[in-house]
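Handout, section 4.2: multi-component inputs.
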Amino acid sequence: MRVWRLPLSALLTLFVVLGVGNAQTRQSGLLFLTPQLQAMQRDPDTNPISLWRDQGQALWSAQCTGCHPKTEAMKDVATHYPKLVAINGMHQLRNLEDQINACRQRTEHPAKSLEDADTLSLSTWLHTQAQGLPVDVQPPTNAPEALVAWQAALTQGTQRYATRLGRMNLACVHCHDGKVGTQLRAEVISPAHPTGFPIYRLNWQTLGSIDRRLRACYSGVQAQVPAPGSAELRQLELYLKVRANGMPLDGPSIRR
Amino acid sequence: MANTSLQIPVRLTLAGPMRAHSDVEVRLMLGHDMETGFRHDSSGVRVPKNILETLTVKLNQTLIFEATLGTGMSANPMLFFPLTLPPEGGTLVVTWMDDQGRSGSTRKLLVYE
Amino acid sequence: MQLAAISASLCVTKSAQAEDLTQAHLKSRGLSEQGMTIDLPPLSDNSNAIPLQLAIQAPPGRRIQSFDIVAPENPNPLILRLKLPQPQARYRLSTRIRLAMTQEVWVIATLDDGQQLGKAAPIIVTATACFDET
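Output:
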């Protein structure tokens, strides 16, 4: 079977592009929570994310509707990130928190980090608007060089997913494709489909972004943790989102 | 010590029939990290203690309870407790104070069916 | 004998600082569990947000003045002290607590005649494995 001689990363790209594993067989991280944690998430009175969502709604009305008057038009925004943008002739990937911060630079309330309370509140609110809508991350169609850059970023993200790193010498694929359903002490390994962000992680005792969660994985395998906003984190997010294309967004979520 | 203001996100809802003499459940959640003083940041520096220490709940002018919170309360503390609604209606006032004497409050008007 | 008398008199002091909140001492007090319910999971998958529900029904003719949630193995054992200026015949509370390790969590109620009730619930506290430096 000659196809198995292809490097693992090329195989993964092939699978992703072919959409192998339809939306029904891919499992959201929500299914890997205990019934108690799922209940905590379902009830807005017990779910601490309510605090961020209510903040986000207030901030949206106060600061964002000036440029974004039609809130309904922003309903699916969270399904399309990360996106490729051109800054000073350079292409870079931007996720939703990056975009919120870029928008906030134009206001009187700029954010200093991706984990800024107001940024996370707005991300919470935008992801709440998109609940139930399918992940829909598509290559750019405006310019051929943008498409090339996007494809390169996806290839890098795909390779990263299959590359061993850290003192533990593990690649993402080893746990998130090879050991799904098994436990790391109290944690049950999920397939890592990013449908639940942002997350109120009990470990963090606060809400955090996908950027933080990916960095936490690097820390988990005892690898050098990339700085927030690093290109390699965005490439990995791009790969994970494309791999999850078609799955309904079901966050923001509680996680351990 | 100046009683500086501490505004935090709060969720305050009531579950149950909104009528005179009705037994309802007050559902309170306060947005606060409840920093224990035991954690270290990624550079190894101890994060200073900062918790909400006192919480009072008043119904009109009556003190319903006064609570002292310790570091063993979870971040974004949640408290659900019973309340019997008075015939005259009124306002529920929740006041918090942290361990540095900063305080704030929120109020909820009781709207009967 | 004298030591027992001295320690008994120490038990009467109610200030938080003087209170002995160790597991051994709380167990040795032989407090009545009558009318007390604690809902605590027997196993927790995190140490930061453990749901706890308590319910107290005072004995006939008595009322609840205050209650404490105590975790003897925590660095600060007194998790919550709630005082009721209008003592109640029954009370309940749902909250979330942090526990440093596997232990018994106590709810100790003080009635309007000074009598105390106490009940403990055991819990095994586990955590996730991966070290998160973020």
